[in-house]
Write a structure and sequence with these properties.
By secondary structure, the chain is of the alpha+beta class. The chain contains 13 helices and 17 strands. A 5-stranded antiparallel sheet has the order 3-4-8-6-7. A 4-stranded antiparallel sheet has the order 11-12-10-13, sandwiched between helices. Strands 15-16-14-17 form a 4-stranded antiparallel sheet, with no helix packed on it. A hairpin with a 4-residue loop joins β3 and β4. It is globular and about 65 Å long. The chain starts with 6 loop residues before the first helix and ends in a 14-residue tail after the last helix. The mean pLDDT is about 95.
Length: about 375
């Protein structure tokens, strides 16, 4: 494992390498690629935090616990609610802010505030020639020219090695509440979530846990506003059946942490898939699968599936448009099916062209996002 102590040392490793490099932050996502392992965990520390300007700048290897602790001290947070993959994937290590950005990790609140990439202000990264590049800035108005910041988010280290992250943070709300609709089937659950999200009551989470027979909706804000909106949503959703409200903020947060981290799948046998599809298609899709368990998030636009080992979910999807990512499976299944949804030819050509520009030697996480 190569563990550079600073950005310059990392750039030297990249520029001088004669072999592929397997990049990682905290190593929590269980990805395995060919090459010399390189970690950014020593590139750690918060370089700038201006709470009044809602701006944080940190080195890529900074542990998420340090970022979250600094924000909590100022009653602020990362609004896009990144999940912790460790228990789902049976991995260890320490999640880092660079890893979160590289994978565009975004939780249940994405439907209300946007994804990780929507909060990015700037990055520093090292390209495939070992050149240190800065793009963006520390406030939104500094983002000019080509928006390479957004391009790096979600690229999983295939275009460059992130060394520094600049992003916008938001205040933590005074309280929150969760409205629970009990006993709905898949189709009714998606309808209830759609009705909630289409309401004027500023919903910040809409999910369904069919095995627990709960469809849940979250609202956040000032206490008097949350109380009012919770009552209005309860009245709005009563047509779907029994509706209760969890008004205790701590209990509400615990419910959404379980959804965010896909807790029902922890330690369970089977493969784990993450599907992104049109919400109205999700009931039909799930009906085609012999799933052990399922969780709907983002109003039904995100589906977590626990299925029998070796099942080709993409084949079962058939004509339903969407993306299916295989997150947890045996090495044989992962090799046979591939982690990522195969790209359409035009998109694959564009992706290949980008990689050739940013990493002309093909040394960064080679083959990670390619088709099986």
């Amino acid at each position: 494992m190569l563990t550079p102590n600073d950005e310059a040392e990392l750039a030297d490793i990249v520029s001088s390498t004669k072999m592929p490099l397997a990049l990682q932050g905290g190593g929590t996502r269980g990805m395995s690629v060919t090459g010399a392992a390189v970690t950014t965990r020593e590139l750690s520390g918060i370089k700038l935090y201006e709470a009044g300007a809602l701006t944080l700048v940190a080195e890529a290897g900074t542990p998420m616990r340090d970022v979250e602790a600094a924000l909590a001290a100022e009653n602020q947070r990362l609004a896009f609610e990144p999940m912790d993959y460790r228990r789902l994937l049976n991995s260890d290590g320490e999640p880092t802010i660079g890893g979160v950005v590289a994978a565009n990790v975004s939780g249940p609140r994405r439907i209300a505030v946007g994804a990780c990439r929507d909060f990015m202000l700037g990055v520093r990264y090292i390209d495939g020639n070992g050149v240190i590049i800065k793009n963006g800035g520390r406030v939104m108005k500094n983002v000019t020219g080509y928006d390479l910041v957004k391009l790096m988010v979600g690229a999983r280290g295939t275009l460059g090695v992130l060394t520094e992250i600049s992003l916008k943070v938001l205040p933590r709300p005074e309280t929150e509440a969760t409205i629970i609709i009990h006993g709905l089937d898949h189709r009714a659950a998606v309808s209830a979530m759609a009705k909630s999200l289409g309401s004027p009551y500023e919903v910040t989470g809409a999910a369904s846990l069919p095995k627990s027979k709960m469809t849940i909706v979250r609202i956040e804000g000032f206490e008097i506003s949350v109380q009012y909106r919770a009552q209005k949503l309860k009245e709005l959703l009563v047509e779907f059946g029994e509706v209760t409200v969890t008004a205790n903020a701590k209990e509400s947060r615990e419910i959404w942490c379980k959804v965010r981290d896909v807790e029902p799948f922890h330690g369970a046998d089977g493969d784990v898939w993450r599907l992104s599809i049109k919400p109205s298609d999700s009931p039909e899709l799930v009906s085609r699968l012999n799933a052990y368990d399922v969780i709907f998030d983002w109003g039904g636009g995100l589906i977590w599936l626990l299925v029998p080992s070796g099942l080709d979910v993409r084949e079962k999807i058939g004509d339903i448009a969407g993306h299916a990512t295989l997150l947890r499976a045996s090495s044989d299944t992962m090799e046979r099916l591939g982690m990522f949804q195969p790209e359409e030819p035009a998109v694959a050509a564009l992706s290949k062209g980008l990689r050739e520009k940013f990493d002309p030697r093909g040394i960064f996480n080679a083959g990670l996002m390619a088709a099986a």
